[in-house]
Amino acid sequence: MDFKARRRKAMAVAKVAGVDALLVTHLPDVVYLTGFTGSNGAVVLLGGRAVLFTDGRYTAQAKAEAVGVKIVVEKKAAVVVACAWMEAAGVQRCGFDGTQTTVAGLEAMRRAVSGKVRRAMFESVGALVARLREVKDADEIAAMRAAALVGCELFEGLLGMMQAGMTEVEVAGALEYAARLRGAEGMSFETIVASGARSALPHGRATMAKLPKRGFCTLDFGVVLGGYCSDMTRTLHFGKAQPREWEVYDSVLEAQTAAVAKVAPGVTAGEVDEAARSVLRRDGLDQYFSHSTGHGVGLEIHEGPRIAAKQEQVLEEGMVITIEPGVYLPGKFGVRIEDMVLVTGKGGEVLTPSVKAWIEL
Ligand code: ZN
Ligand code: ZN
Asked: 184 CA to middle of ligand 1, Å?
């Protein structure tokens, strides 16, 4: 990972925003800029310098992970030490991420510096680093490809063991254990296994409910591998299906395929959303599609860009997004299909190529 290039880019954008230093406290941004993965860390970028502030628990880890970065270890909260350090270094205007800083956090930052600089010192520059993170570099794309492929292998492994009568938590447990055996550091989010009428819950976390003899089961899960998140959804069917179940599945699959086909650099996020939504509208199902079409994914499971109705943001080569339309008929059943898609020079490349055709167990 070329952390130095990322820091250079972040500092260049910060300069354009009119600040002479950048304070980074959102932990995924700290990882992005330095490689440091501890739970207490703040980074200051000042000119060509980068300083990582942390505490004694992380001395060895910080040295090992944040190569080429000056490391300051103190007992106090990293952000407080960072602010005092900046004042001593003569920083006049420090940019911070106002979308990730709480009111209490900003007060702590102000208290950490003296009255004479306090008033003009801190200026929100928005989600500056998070915006840079939307476009992945080659190392990140390689990491995300690997994470996505592990997701596909796990899904294919589950197909051989899932059967009616198993509980949803058993399925989630088997999946998560297999993920660990393949080297996952964890899951990207709480595994969703939503079976029978529960498949109509877009975020139905695994419960003690049993997989049905007849009906759908939606699996939505991801692994964290090499620091990067994967995310995919497939909906399976147990036993003989009703015609209505077929119809809805076909419609969601067509919507998902249409949105994937729309992905290309220069296309807006809203146009991709509309590609999915218009198929469901044609089939009278758009009122049951109650969320947006997708989201960026990377160090965090949900990042920019948002793939939602009327979003003007233009897709760029190197972004990795999900495409995950769904239809949820309350009390009956639901269907969602989700892939991770890399925006390439001329279109979109699906990173999760597991089968999407109707699967009957
Ligand atoms: Zn998902
Ligand atoms: Zn997702």
From this structure: 17
Distance from residue 122's CA to the centre of ligand 2 (Å): 34
For residue 344, report the phi and psi dihedrals to the nearest 5 degrees.
-100, -175
Return d(Cα 280, Cα 273) in angstroms, integer.
11
Ligand 1 centroid–CA 320 distance in Å is: 13
For 97, the token pair is: 């991420």
Q: How far is the CA of 108 from the centre of ligand 2 (A)?
A: 34
Closest ligand to Cα 234:
1
| Ligand 2 centroid – CA 219 distance (Å) | 11
Residue 360: pLDDT above 90? Answer: no
110 phi/psi in degrees, rounded to 5: -65, -40
- As a residue count, the chain comes to 361
pLDDT digits (tens, 9 = 90+) for 42-68: 999 998 999 999 999 999 999 999 999
Q: Tell me which H or E stretch contains 192.
A: strand 192-195
Each residue's pLDDT tens digit, 105-145: 999 999 999 998 888 999 999 999 999 999 999 999 999 99
- CA-CA-CA-CA dihedral for 327, 328, 333, 337, to nearest 10: 40
**Tokens for 248?**
């809805």
| Separation of alpha carbons 5 and 9, rounded Å | 6
Q: What is the pLDDT of residues 81-90, one digit of tens each?
A: 999 999 999 9
Which pLDDT score is estimated for 213?
A: 96
Helices (H), 201-284: 243-262, 269-282
Percent of all residues in the chain with a pLDDT value above 90, rounded to a whole number:
96
Q: In angstroms, what is the span from residue 308 Cα to ligand 1's centroid? A: 15
70 closest CA partner among 53, 83, 87 = 53
Cα(348) to centroid(ligand 2), Å: 17
294 CA from centroid of ligand 1 (Å): 9
Ligand nearest to the CA of 191: 1
The domains located in the chain, with CATH, are 3-133 (3.40.350.10), 138-350 (3.90.230.10)
The reported pTM is 0.95
